[in-house]
Amino acid sequence: MRKYFGTDGIRRIANTDLTPELVYKVAKAGAYVLSKHANHTPTILIGRDTRLSGTLIESAMTAGFLSYGANVKLLGVIPTPAVAYLTKKLNADASVVISASHNTFEFNGVKYFSNKGMKISDEIEEEIEEIMDSGKIDELIAVKDKIGTSEIREDLIDEYVYFFRKNFDEDIEYNYNPNFVVALDVANGATYKVAEKVFKTLGIAYKIINNHPDGVNINRDCGSTHIDGLKKFVTENKCNLGIAYDGDGDRCLAVDENGNEIDGDKILAICSAYLKEKGKLKNDTLVATVMSNLGLVKYSQKKGITLKQTKVGDRYVLEEMLKNDYNLGGEQSGHIIFLDYNPTGDGILTSLMLIKILLEKKVTASKLCDIITLYPQVLINVKVNNDKKAYLESNSEIQDLIKRTEKEFAGDGRVLIRPSGTEPVIRVMIEGKDQEKIEIAAKEIANMIEKQLS
Q1: What is the C-alpha separation between 182 and 205, in angstroms, rounded?
Q2: Which domains does the chain have, with CATH numbers?
Q3: Nearest-angstrom CA–CA distance, 247 and 104
């Protein structure tokens, strides 16, 4: 079991659990592991979101890299997928994103990307941890002219903007509709500047909200984790589509013209149908996780699309895509990977794919969603101490209740109970045809977990 890394890098309360000392060690160990086979001075990119603690963590990270002898390019506030894209484009040896994604501002995190612009594997994370906790880290010291240098390169964000212009300008212009208006909720996060740049460059009419970050308002009642405000804004302003990004910009959820949510499963259905229609869905296969709605399974069967399901986490989706040559995958949370464009989830890319499809087909967003019917689903996050998560599997009372519930919903629903890899919670998810019935069952399991493990 890993000591520091979870399912999405290291994520903790900044400056207490995620201390500058810990970050410094993570940087040195990471630089060593990710560039130990290079025969040149390694170059590492660092990007961050808008959290108050971002510059603190960035400083400690930079110090660790420079002390090891790596050179650093500081990208400033920039979405996670932009860092991944630039890592590959600039042939950097590795990169780091300082962000806690959808979490509240007091959290922060560290996510490593390899030289291919992909999140590093579990095995590499384990190797980094091993170096951190060994005496070897004290030997990773550059001296004299081997000490690394850093430079501020916030201008590189323009390369990311050009990436969208190159891939979408022609299609958006050809199907241009002057009456088509998009509402953007940038969650006071990493997309707060670049999303506007992209939409202006492509000539898409938009209205923007939650684009005034102050260091503590990231994800606060806004963005993809709090979408009610966007629903209201879309209907009041008669927008054709609403787009909500998360704090670091790798997720996207949407809202149709009537204020109804378009979640990741619906986005996957819409995009897979479009790509299959164009003959561009590789192996006629879609990759999702076990958290995806049962409706996505039914949709895939009806459309003749093979649905591959993985463990929860975009890294596992990507691993399956790379292993078997698939080009579309994602999560219900809106983390969608279009592998033909970028090897990580990209909120802006996802939103532009939706807009491209809408403009080309000349239909409303609500009509586009008719392609899939989702089952009622209840998700309860039960707060538990991190050290008690491991007892979920061995607690007989909890497991007996789960088995009884699974039997009750067999054939017409689904029960999924799992510890979060990024938060101190256990997630209780139940699907079925009867909303009231699944709510009662989910609360019963949640109460049992709270009683036994809190």
Answers
A1: 6
A2: 10-152 (3.40.120.10), 159-371 (3.40.120.10), 377-453 (3.30.310.50)
A3: 9
Query: In the structure, what pLDDT confidence band is assigned to residue 389 with cuts at 50, 70 and 90?
Result: confident
Average pLDDT over residues 302-313: 94
101 is catalytic: yes
Give pLDDT tens digits for 395-448.
Answer: 899 999 999 999 988 877 889 898 887 778 899 999 998 899 999 999 999 999
The residues near 367 (Cβ < 8 Å, ≥ 6 apart) are none
User: Which backbone phi and psi does 119 adopt, to 5 degrees?
Assistant: -60, 140
Find the catalytic residue in 101, 114, 351, 420.
Answer: 101
Burial class (CB in 10 A: 0-12, 13-18, 19+), 387: exposed
Task: Specify the pLDDT at position 109.
Answer: 96
| Averaged pLDDT of the chain | 94
In whole angstroms, give the CA distance from residue 316 to residue 122: 10
Instruction: Using DSSP bridges, classify how beta strands 150-152 and 107-113 pair: parallel, antiparallel or unpaired.
Output: unpaired
Contact at 8 Å (CB) between 347 and 412? no
Mean pLDDT for 309-332 is 94
Place of tokens 């689904």: 414
Q: What are the DSSP E strand ranges found in 317-392?
A: 328-330, 336-338, 377-383
For Cα atoms 319, 323, 325, give the angle at the middle one, nearest 5 degrees. 110
Give CA separation, 321 vs 192, 307, 429, in Å: 30, 12, 25
Look at residues 231, 81, 50, 60 and name the one whose alpha carbon lies nearest to residue 163. 81
